[in-house]
Amino acid sequence: MRTTPPRDDLDLALTQSRRDFASIGHHPGRAYLDSAATAQRPAQVLDAERAFVERDYAAVHRGASEAVGAATEAFETARHKVAGFVGAAADEIVWTENATDAINVVALGLSDASTIAVDSALALRPGDEILVTEAEHHANLLPWQKLAARTGAVLRWAPVGPDGTWSIDGLRDAASDRTRLIAFAHVSNVTGLIAPVADVAELARSLGAMTLLDACQSVPHLPVDLGALGVDFAAFSGHKMLGPTGIGALYGRAELLNALPPARTGGSTITTVTMTDAEFLPAPQRFEAGTQPVSQAVGLGAAVDYLDGWGMDRIHAHETELAGLLTEAVAGIPGVRLIGPPPGAPRAAIVSVDVEGVHAHDVGQFLDSRGVSVRVGHHCAQPLHRALGISASTRASAYLYTTPGEVDRFGAALAEVRAFFGADR
C-alpha cells in the first residue's frame, strides 16, 4: 500500500525544487497554472541536453567511431531510463515527435496492416469497431476517424455525462463483439478524470480487442506501470514531464510492435533493401526512420532522473492536495461551473470551469492581469465541450512546483471575474 509522505517532507521538496526552475525566479509575481499544456524545465534537464550537445553530439547508430559510440550510448541510456520509469522494456519504447505522433504511428500502422498486409492479425475489416470516449483529446480521436474511413471500420464512443465525465458502464454499453480497439485517456486534459484503466483493459481482453492509452496527463503526475496496467499501446510527451519539446514516446507490447507495419520508412529502419523490397529491423528501430531526436532524448532521460529524485508517490500526494484545493476554490464561487468530478472525488490537479456570462478568453485575460497563467479554449476537445453546451472553458493545472498559495491566488482572482465584467448583476 502507498503511504502519503509527511507534509513537511512535501514542503521541503517543493521549496528545493522551485529553485531549479529559472522561469519561476524570472517571474516571481506569476502563478504558472498551465502545466497540462506544457511543463517548465528544471536546470538539470537544460544542463544535461546542453552538455551532451557541447561534448558528445554525433549521429547515432551510424558508423563505428568513438564519437558515434558515445552518442549512441547516451541515446539508448535515455531509452532505458524512460522505459524503466513507465514499467516497460527498452525495446517497447519508440521515440516519436510527441504523443500525437505516437498515436498516429499506431493508427497508420493499423491502416497499412488492413490495406497492404491484409493477412495481418492486426488488420481491421469493414464493420469492425474502434471505440473511444466523447472526452478524448483530438489527438486521440482524429487518427481513429481517419483509420475508420480508410478501412471501413466503424467509430463508436462512450458518451459523457452532464459533468463531462464518462463511465466504465458507458464504455461497456458502447462496446460489442466487433470492437477491435479501445483508445482512451488515462487522465482527461479537461475534466481531470482518472480513468479505470485496469477495468478498460479487462473489457478489451474479454472482447479480443487492443487498447491504446493516452498517457500524456498521467505519466508526468502519477506512478505509472504500463505493463502492470495491461494496455497494449500507450503514448506520452516529453514536454509535459519537464523534458524538451520535439520528443515523445510510444509504448507497445513487444510482440505487437514487431507485428505492426512501420508508419514511416527510410534510413535506420531496415536490415536489407533491394530495388523492389525491404526487410525491417525489430522494434523500436523499425519505427525510427531518419535522423533521431538525440539531444531531446538525453533531455528526457534527465527529466526522468529529476522526477525519480522527487519521487512519483510524493508528486502524486502533492498534486492530490492541490486538486482538492482547486476544486474547493472553484466550488465556492457563485456563477462558476466546475467541469469534471465534484469536490471530494478523485481527480488529477486539473480544473476547468465555465464562468456564467463571461467568455473563457476574457476570463483568461483577467486572470493573466492578476498574475495567474491558465489555458483557455476548447483544449483540443471540441466534442466534449459541445456535449457540455459550451464552446470553451478556462483551465488551471498544477505540477510539482505549484504551491497552495498559487492555487489560492487563482481562486481569489476567479472570484473577481463576474463582478469585473458586470456579469453578476
Automatic annotation (TrEMBL):
InterPro entries: Aminotrans_V_dom, Aminotrans_V_PyrdxlP_BS, Cys_dSase_SufS, PyrdxlP-dep_Trfase, PyrdxlP-dep_Trfase_major, PyrdxlP-dep_Trfase_small. It holds the Pfam family Aminotran_5. Its cofactor is pyridoxal 5'-phosphate. Keywords: Pyridoxal phosphate, Transferase. The keyword Iron does not apply. Its EC number is 2.8.1.7. PROSITE patterns: AA_TRANSFER_CLASS_5. One of its GO terms (molecular function) is pyridoxal phosphate binding. GO terms for biological process: cysteine metabolic process. It catalyses: (sulfur carrier)-H + L-cysteine = (sulfur carrier)-SH + L-alanine. Residues 32-410 form the Aminotransferase class V domain. Belongs to the class-V pyridoxal-phosphate-dependent aminotransferase family. Csd subfamily. Catalyzes the removal of elemental sulfur and selenium atoms from L-cysteine, L-cystine, L-selenocysteine, and L-selenocystine to produce L-alanine. This is Cysteine desulfurase. The gene is sufS.
